[in-house]
Amino acid sequence: MQIKGQETIYEGFYTFRKLIVEEDGDTFEREQFVSGNAAAALVYDTQQDKYIFVKQYRYSAEMNLLETVAGVVENGDPEKTIRKEIAEETGYKVDRLEHIWDFFTSPGACTEKVHLYYAEVSGKERQGGGLDEEHEHIQVVALTEAEMLRLRLMDAKTIIALQWLAARKQTQLRHPETTL
User: Fold this and answer.
1) Are strands 26-34 and 15-23 parallel, antiparallel or unpaired?
2) CA 67 to CA 69: how far, in whole Å?
3) Bridge partners of 41?
4) What distance in Å separates the CA atoms of residue 49 and residue 15, rounded to the nearest whole number?
5) Which whole-number Å values give the CA distances from 171 to 9, 47, 158, 161, in the listed order?
6) What DSSP string describes 25-72?
7) Do residues 82 and 62 make contact, with C-beta atoms less than 8 angstroms apart?
8) Which of 57, 91, 120, 130 can pair with 126 through a Cys bridge, CB separation 3.0 to 4.6 Å?
């Protein structure tokens, strides 16, 4: 398969492109959603012995979602981006950062790649809750490991992060009981 041409058909907060694709002598069109890459982190507060999540309304899901901290990668630097996002969204400063995995969210139509991390924090430097100028209304949620592993989650990057943690601790995610 080879992309023979592309045209931007919409450019706003996100970009949509029409691609001309060739495969086995056939030429056809496909659409591509260009959102930029993301950095995300499962955040663990070593002082509280709790995991820190963010809860916010997601218009595409049309509901509030409990998620790992995340943001659009700036200047091609996912590590710097996630440190900044953790500070803005939760108020914490990162003590230790470990890269977990990179993955595409929906490669059939979307260009987004998520750079997933595990972050340890031990103290807040500011309030958190996101930035007003970015229209973020973020609730910070701290959960014990037991509480976290019982949640019914809908966000893929958060599920992947919890599966990674469960494998690392040689445990398993329990049957989802609660939605926050």
Assistant:
1) antiparallel
2) 6
3) 69, 117
4) 41
5) 47, 22, 17, 14
6) TEEEEEEEEE---EEEEEEEETTTTEEEEEEEEETTTTEEEEE-EEEE
7) no
8) 91
Sequential pLDDT tens for the chain (180 residues): 899 999 999 999 889 999 999 999 999 999 999 989 999 999 999 999 999 999 999 988 899 999 999 999 999 999 999 999 999 999 999 999 999 999 999 998 999 999 999 999 998 887 776 666 665 678 999 999 988 888 888 999 999 999 999 899 877 666 566 555
Q: Which residue type, as a one-letter code, is found at position 157? A: K
CA distance 91 to 62: 26
CA distance 36 to 14: 8
In CATH terms, the fold of domain 38-168 is: Nucleoside Triphosphate Pyrophosphohydrolase (3.90.79)
Judged by DSSP in three states, 97 sits in: strand
| Strand 113-124 with 38-45, pairing | parallel
CA separation, residue 173 to residues 140, 146, 154, 158, 177 (Å): 22, 9, 14, 12, 11
pTM of the model: 0.88
Name the token pair of 18. 């029409």
